[in-house]
Every structure is written in structure tokens, then in C-alpha cells.
Design brief:
Radius of gyration: 21 Å
CATH class of the largest domain: Alpha Beta
Helix content: 25-40%
Number of helices: 14
Shape: globular
CATH architecture of the largest domain: 2-Layer Sandwich
Structural class: alpha+beta
Largest sheet: 7 strands, mixed
Strand order of the largest sheet: 10-9-11-13-14-8-15
Number of domains: 2
Number of strands: 15
Strand content: 15-25%
Distance between the termini: 53 Å
Amino acid sequence: MQKKWYRLDTAALIFPAIARRDWSNAFRVSATLTDPIDPDVLQQAVDDLRGRFPSFFVTLRKGFFWYYLEESDRNVRVQGDYAYPLTFMSTRELRKNCLRVLYYKNRIAVECFHALSDGRGGSVFLCNLTARYLELQYGIRIPKEGLIRDLREPPSPEELEDSFLKNAAEVASVRETERSYRLRGTREPSGFKTLTTGVAETKTLLDTAHRYHVTVTAFLAAVMAECVIRMQNERLPKKRQRTVKITVPVDLRRLFGSETLRNFSLVLNVGADPRCGDYRLEDLCGTIYHQLCAYATPQNMAGMIAANVQPQQIVVLRLAPVFLKNIVMDGVYRRSGEGGGSLNVSNIAELPVPEIMTGYVKRMEFIIGPQRSYPNNCSVLSYGGRTYINMIRSIRESELEQRFFSRLVELGIPVEIECNRRN
């Protein structure tokens, strides 16, 4: 029987081209249950999802003109969680499966190569995996509402589509080129990643953001920008400083009514130029919030989509072999792919799951790895009245996390701190 295969979506085209031996663009979503995980039941739940979510059970293949995803002939085998979150996904591993399913005590974790999907799509997969596990383990029935799908039904064409191609404007928006200030530090040996989690009450966080008349995403991005600006002020004179911009991913599904489970998000770089004067937190909140409101419109995002889609339609580039495309895309990425931001603040908000699941699921989390050219990243998810702020880094220095969480406490937001290292 011929295997199914999928073209990489527009956002995914870049990921195989820019991967390095010590870096692969991946993310993790996880659910912590009330009871220890039974690995045999979890394996059955994974197997039961294969027919309903085929685009997650694939391998990365290299064709003459493009990379593509092909249905895997290997099962995704659950394995005990090990080492640290988001260990390197090698080319050899991606040729077997682009998805990991891990367990540790009460936790189920899904790690996904970014060519498959984004945080929202990965969250749908995790929620359905968790729901199926609960059905098998406890003999309960999870209603098919919110993010939960009927596993007996085939995936809809809309779930598998490249929504970028469908929603591109006729004219591309101009890309931002100014480079932002970057944090530096001592790289961890063997690619180790330090994860620091701050746990806050969602209501307190919301109330504080609303006092500044902004959303939680804008508020957290503003606090992060304030911390980075202060660090830059202590290191450089004003005339040598750069803009400080926070990269905020925007889920395009709401803007365009898409149901795709593949990548469908773009990033906005929002912040301020400290060379123009001093900024209070109130100023940063207003500036960042209004930038997000102004840029995250269907019209502007359609123009940004077109900027990514149109190069694919250039005949010379389409006919170029994949190794030449890799050189071109790697060069473009180094010049502009991450240059516009200082670090990410990615918030996928709260996941709507059926009420019956809340009695079995204690917490849910989202973690994105450090980018290729900067060592810190931040990802946020709210569940059960608590917000989990995950700050990950590939350097030893913990100054940014200390400043950020201390600032939240100063603002009246108590934060419980967890970390995966002791020293």
C-alpha cells in the first residue's frame, strides 16, 4: 500500500533547512494527572489516535526539490521522560518519527518537531491523547466538545490544509529588518536546557493586566521588555543600545476561521527603543498592547502571509534542488528570521477541555525551546485557575528569570518557582 505524504506547510518549509546538529525547532505540551501513568494504557491511547490525527504520525523525508512528510511505518512508542525537556531531535530520529510521547510519574508529555504543527495544533493532539487515556484507564466517556474529537471519524480536509496558501494577500508586507538587543551567556555543555517555571493565580494575573488596561499577553511581554531594557542599560551606554522587542506568536485560526492542525501562526515583534527615552511599565504596556492591536489584523497578517508564500512561487527557486534551497533559506533566516526580536513570549491561553477531565488533570503546560540565535524563551499556558510561565534557557546565567519573576512579585503577583536544576 502506498504511504500517504504531505507537503510541508508554508511555515514548516524553513525548519529542516535551518536545523543544526545541536538545535532543532521543537515544542512540548504536557498534562499532569492525579494518578501515575500506566505506560501500556498510554501506548494504546497513542495507537488509537493514529487514524484520527495522521499528520502527526509522520517522518521527515528529503526529496530532490523539497522536504516533505511521509506516513511513518513505525509506531510512536511511548518512553519514559529523561534528561531535560526538548532534547535534540536528530535527523536520524526525524526519519523515524517527528513526534515523541513521554511519561514521568503522573505526567504525559508530547514533544513535536515544529514542521508538524504549532502550539495550538499540538495542544489539540495532547488533549485528545489525554482524553483517550482517561477513557481507557478509568472506563469513562469524554464528551466530544471543545478540543476533543471523535476518534471514529476521519480527519476533515480543513484540518490537514495549508491555511497560509488559502489566506495570503495579493501584495506582501515589507519585512522588518532592524535587529534587536540580544542576551548572551555561557552555553551549557551537551545542549542542556534549564527550565524555570513560575506558577501564578490566573485571576491575580488577569486583574493586574487589566489595571494596566491590557491583555495578559501584552502585560507579560511588557514586563519582559522592561527587564531586558534594564539589563541593557546596565551593560551599554544609550548610544550603543538597540531596540528591545519581544516576539509574540499570533494564532491565525481565530482571525481567518481556520480549523487546520498544521502550522498556522505568525510572529509580531513588539517593544520599544530605549535610545528614545526612558519607559515606565505603564508606557511599555500601552505601547506593546497597541502595537499588537494594530498589527494583528486580518489584512496585515494576510500581507505577512504573502511575504512567506510568494517566494515559493518563484520558478527558479521552485526548480532549485533542495540543497540550494537550504543555503538560501538559511541565509534569509540568519539575516531576518530571528533578528527582529530579543526573545519570545508565547501564550496559548487556556485550553477548553470537557469538565469531566478536570477531575483527572491537575495541570497543563506549554514549553518552546530556545531559538537558534538567542538563548532564552518564555511560554505560557493557563489551566485550572493557575498560569504556568515556563522560561527556558540554553545558558548558565539565570539573571533574566530572576528579574522577571521578582518583578511580577513586586507588582503584587505571588509566584511559586520550580526548576529542573539544583545549582
